[in-house]
């Protein structure tokens, strides 16, 4: 499964946010068999309004969200790449994730000690990013040395391939050394492909989560210059930015569904930063959702963008790929306006798709297969 790692300096609110993610998902989804794999790994349902609409239309007995995994990666401090504070161990945890949520403290609170004495999101983000960059430089250098010593490169690579990889690595090194993340290097798709195996940390897509006091949630620009600065940084890097209040999320977990909505309405917000964070992470991982919907159950399923109908069927059960015959498909909007699959069929909106069909975001599918 694809994983999103939560990183940031100590005392910025990572654990508070992670606990709200995990506890909130337990409270919210009675239907989901919740599991914690390790203390710092949480499986979290992806909020999706469409799922509930479909479930209501189909009068389903149960409604099941799809999920993504978050990992709380605590302990990253300045000097981590040189082994400070178990640094390398934390960096290796980051290497295993597919996307990063970088939590940055934007709240003022004299009761919560800041490791560097003051609130300064750009400086803080820079501390973390420097560690990631140093680790990447180290990684690239080691790979380069191996190739220069006459290492063989990848399986089946010839001398030309090795030269190509060296050139890409050198460009990457210069990029990262300048403080630019590797993902922004001026290289082609094929070039990036050549060094994918290195698992460079600054290759991973990033969401900056600005952690603010709850009062700053409504109008961050006016009330919180820290959050504004962080948002501008994210925009300049084409990275995503989400405003959250870890403290408020923690309190919201305690409230039931209705109370919770009232609380949000009071703040004039539709959904919490945490819900947005989950959705943005899901999107950034290149994940897509299709649905199955009937009386028994309406359920959201996760696929990777570009998957064909038999592959998508395999997400439900591997046997479905082998036995795949066809996919009876209605787009989400068409399903909702028609009111049922049968009605969509009458209107000619139900398509019978074969093996080559690439499943689209929001498709509502009934698979036909041999068992
Ligand atoms: P971590 O080290 O990044 O995991 O930080 P924690 O989640 O353990 O939070 C450190 C301290 O900051 C705790 O005492 C939290 O209650 C507090 N904290 C976290 N988020 C907020 C926030 O949004 N506002 C305020 N005032 N305190 C917070």
UniProtKB/TrEMBL annotation:
GO cellular component terms, semicolon-separated:
cytoplasm
Q: Which GO terms describe its molecular function?
A: ATP binding; ATP hydrolysis activity; GTP binding; metal ion binding; ribosomal large subunit binding
Q: Where in the cell is it found?
A: Cytoplasm
Sequence positions that bind ATP: 11-16, 212
Alphabetically sorted, this entry's keywords are: ATP-binding, Cytoplasm, Hydrolase, Metal-binding, Nucleotide-binding
Q: Where is the OBG-type G domain?
A: 2-264
What function does the entry list?
Hydrolyzes ATP, and can also hydrolyze GTP with lower efficiency. Has lower affinity for GTP.
Q: Which family does it belong to?
A: Belongs to the TRAFAC class OBG-HflX-like GTPase superfamily. OBG GTPase family. YchF/OLA1 subfamily.
Assembly and partners are described as: Monomer.
Q: What is this protein called?
A: Obg-like ATPase 1
This protein's species is: Chloropicon roscoffensis
The lineage is: Eukaryota, Viridiplantae, Chlorophyta, Chloropicophyceae, Chloropicales
Q: Which residues of the full protein are shown?
A: 86 to 456 of 456
